C-alpha cells in the first residue's frame, strides 16, 4: 500500500517535468488537474480564490464524513460559518480562562517528565503523537489523557484505520464502481470506526451539557454549545455538526503534527546554534513564552526550514472548482478536482536561496533577521488554508525551545545511519526511530 501511494505521489511530482505547471491526470476513474509552482498556485488559490475553494463531493471520504464538519465540507454557508467560528475560538480569547499557550505548556511538562523518567532512549514519534493528541483534546474537550489511556488508544486506532482506508485501493474501487458500495467489503470498516469516534464525541458532548455554565466556556465544545444557544433554528450549527467538527479538528491537528520531524533535524548541525540563541535570550527566565520567538530569528529559521523540507502534507487536501473558470490560459469547468502540489512550491528554484538542501539561511536576510518568503506554504494558502496554523506554530516553537533548552538528543551509535525515507499517508512522516536523550550538562 505504502509503495502504491509513494508511486502516486512520485508520479505527480515527475509529471511536472514533462507537462509543465498545470496538467491533468486520472485518479482512478476521476479526472483531476494538478497545480505546480508558485505562479500557478497563486493565480488559482489566492487571486481566483473562491473559484478554487470547493472540495470534491463524490469520493469515499465524503461518504465517511457525510459531507459535514469543515475539512471536507463544500464551499458554502455551512463551511464558511464553521470555519469562521473555529478560527475565532482557536484564537486565545475564545477558550475561556485557560489560554492556548497555557494548555500547550502544561502538556510539555508531561513530555519532560516522560523524558526524565526514560532518561535513556525515546521514540519521538510515539511521544509527540500522544502529546499532539492531548493538546488538541485539551482544546476541544478540556481534558488530557494518560499516554496509555484506553479511550485515547481507541480514538487513535479509529482515525489511523480511517486514514489508512481512505488511502487504500479499496477507496479507489469504491469511487470507481458505485455498484459495490453496499457489499460487505473492507471499506465498511472506515464507517464503523467513524461511528466509534462519533459515539465517544457524543458522550463527551453530553457530559459537557450536564456540567457547563452558559456563557463561561471551558473549551471548544462549551463555546460551540454557547453558540448553539444563541443561533436560530435554521442555522448550520447543530449537535451533529459539533461531533463532526471535533473529529476534523482532532484528525487535522494530530496527524499533521510535525514535532517528531524536528528530531530528524538534530542530525543536521544547527541544534547547537539554536541552543546558544535560546540560552542567550532566556537567560534568567524560568518560562518560555511564544513572544520570545521574536528575539530568536535563527531558531525560527530552523523550525521553518524543517517544515519546508519535511513537507508533511505534500498534496494539500483536494480542492474543487466552484464554477467554470480559467487557470494559466486553460479552461476548467465547474466541479474539476484540483490537486495542489505544495512540494513543487516549497522547493522551487527561483523562490529559495537553497531550494534543494536543508539550510536555515532560506529564512534569514543579510542582517540575520527572520524573513518568510511568500512561497512558504506548508499550510497551503487562500480561503481554505489550514485553520490550525496558529496552534501548530505555537506548539512547534514552544516544544522545540523548551526541549532544546533542557535536553540533548543523540542518535544511538549502534543504530546505523538514520533513514530519512519518508512514510507516505495523507501526510509524510519519517520512518520510526528511537533516540538517546540526556539532560544538558550546563543546565
Ligand atoms: C504542522 C501542522 C499542520 C500542517 C502542515 C497543516 C497543513 C494543512 C493543509 C496543507 C491543509 C489543506 C489546506 C487547503 O485545502 O488548501 C490543512 C487544512 C486544515 N487544517 Fe491543517 N495543518 C497543520 C495543523 C493543523 C492543526 C493543529 C489543526 C487543528 C487545530 C488543523 C486544522 C485544519 C483544518 C480544519 C483544515 C481544513 C480547512 C478548510 O477546509 O477550510 N491543522 N492543513
Automatic annotation (TrEMBL):
One of its GO terms (biological process) is organic acid metabolic process. One of its GO terms (molecular function) is oxidoreductase activity, acting on paired donors, with incorporation or reduction of molecular oxygen, reduced flavin or flavoprotein as one donor, and incorporation of one atom of oxygen. Heme binds at residue 386. Its cofactor is heme. InterPro entries: Cyt_P450, Cyt_P450_CS, Cyt_P450_E_grp-I, Cyt_P450_sf, Cytochrome_P450_fam2. The keyword Acetylation does not apply. PROSITE patterns: CYTOCHROME_P450. Pfam families: p450. Keywords: Heme, Iron, Membrane, Metal-binding, Monooxygenase, Oxidoreductase, Signal. The keyword Membrane applies. GO terms for cellular component: cytoplasm; membrane. It is found in: Membrane. It comes from the Eukaryota. PANTHER family: CYTOCHROME P450 2F2-RELATED (PTHR24300:SF327), CYTOCHROME P450 508A4-RELATED (PTHR24300). Belongs to the cytochrome P450 family. This is Cytochrome P450 2U1-like.
